[in-house]
Amino acid sequence: MLRIESMNIDLAGHSVLRGVDLELAPGQTVAVVGRNGAGKTTLLRAVMGLVAPRAGRLLLDGQDITRSPASRRAAAGFGYAPEDRVILPTLSVAQNIALPCEVLRLPRHEIGRRIDAVLASVPQLEPMLSRSGAALSGGQGKIVALARALMVGVRFVLLDEPFQGLAPALARQYGDALRALRVSHPQLCVVVTESNAALLDAVQSRTLYIERGAVSETTSAAA
After folding, report:
1. How do residues 143-187 score in pLDDT, each as one tens digit?
2. HEC states along 99-161?
């Protein structure tokens, strides 16, 4: 269980997140819906430890991780797929998805086991494994970014605007992969940000709305 308590974040002197109180439980697929600039990306980056809150706490199973760096959160089971994918062009797809595990110095057999588990949930990745990262389309890069996040995200996977710019066929494949995760990884908590709530139909088990940095369980905050 991850609990966010009274979190406030300022960036460049402006308030971006305001008084966020939130619990993320195992097995949930949480949609965070809001307009561009509402604070969706900042929320994910705060959970991943890439931005520091001005006030508030993040508690993982009751332990305060507010000041823990992103590397420690990855080691604790957090995976993150940013909106811009960040695929390394000089590495193959297989090398790209294995890289976070290698940074964490996981043994080779464990990396292989995780790749097998990811391919079972994201089978459309397998034909890409030997390709160069430079040879991927934007949509294919998002599939690879999802797989890379799953390699370390054994407890939480944070996906920032994954459907943005995807062709309809790839969007369906991505949605299929998220639905498959709910079956293959029943204890995994997946958090997906999106501007268009319709794209997450039949994917999420819970929907949050964010507007001007405030998070709500109802649409009143986004109205």
Report:
1. 999 999 999 999 999 999 998 888 888 888 888 888 888 888 899
2. HHHHHCCCCHHHHHHHHHHHHHHCHHHHHHCCCEHHHCCHHHHHHHHHHHHHHHCCCEEEEEC
Domain that holds residue 182: 2-221
Total of domains in the chain: 1
Containing H/E element for 171?
Answer: helix 168-184
Helix 168-184 vs helix 108-121: crossing angle, to nearest 10: 120
Q: Which two tokens stand for residue 3?
A: 């609990």
CB atoms within 10 A of CB 134: 10
Distance CA 102, CA 195 (A): 33
CB atoms closer than 10 angstroms to residue 169: 9
Q: For the domain that residue 94 is a member of, what is the CATH number? A: 3.40.50.300
pLDDT band at 221 (very low <50, low <70, confident <90, very high): very low
- In this predicted structure, the answer to whether residue 67 has a pLDDT above a threshold of 90 is yes
What's the rounded Cα separation, in Å, for the pair 18 and 214?
Answer: 5
The span from the CA of 144 to the CA of 125, in Å, is 7
Rounded Cα distance, 189 and 168, in Å? 25
